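User: Sequence in, structure out. Go.
Assistant: Echoing your sequence, followed by the structure tokens.
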Amino acid sequence: MGPAIFSFERGVIMKTRRTVGLWLLPLLCLLMASCIDSKCPLGDPKTSKADPALHGVWRMVRDHGQVEYCHVGVAAGKLPAGTLRLVLVNQNADGSLDRPGEVLAFPTSLGKNRYLNVVVTDEDDLERLNKDGWNPKWVQGYFILKYRIQDDALTFWNMDQDAKRRAIEAGKIKGEIGKKDSAIGQSACFTDTPEKLASLLESAESDKLFSKLPEGMQTYKRMK
């Protein structure tokens, strides 16, 4: 089974096998918390360095006519300087707009590779983070996305559930393996330290952890 993909349509989180925007994953929140990639981030959000190349508005057109607009900018306020706010707006083929989704994230660079730590939290705790600043007790976990910016294209790869499970079973990193699910397979979540997670992603295992399937990657184009 490949990557777990989800959609957020008209305020309802749904599991699906079709390709959807990776920005939507943290909106699983309490309903799908078992599907997060890691209980800890790759690094410390308070020392994370911003990646200005991510800033702006990104657009992706789907086969069924839906258009996704991803707005990325500095979260500002009391949050650490490297924290990003991501706002997604879906315009459907009939012209209607879904309710926008908002998440927080921060980048981490490991060698030549760049990753986004996408914060998983519920709506109330998201408001607390926005109002009072960073506090890990209001965070349930993280989705770890690998990304690359080339010319005006932004590509994301999400982690593969099976690859995470194999890494845990092989003792390469601590984690929890969930029960099998007909839609997403068998979920796996890393529970080790940021240092151990970073070490794994700096090893030869790194490339194996991210999906090679079409539904496991997304490419957006920068709007000018």
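User: And one key feature?
Assistant: The longest helix spans residues 123-132.
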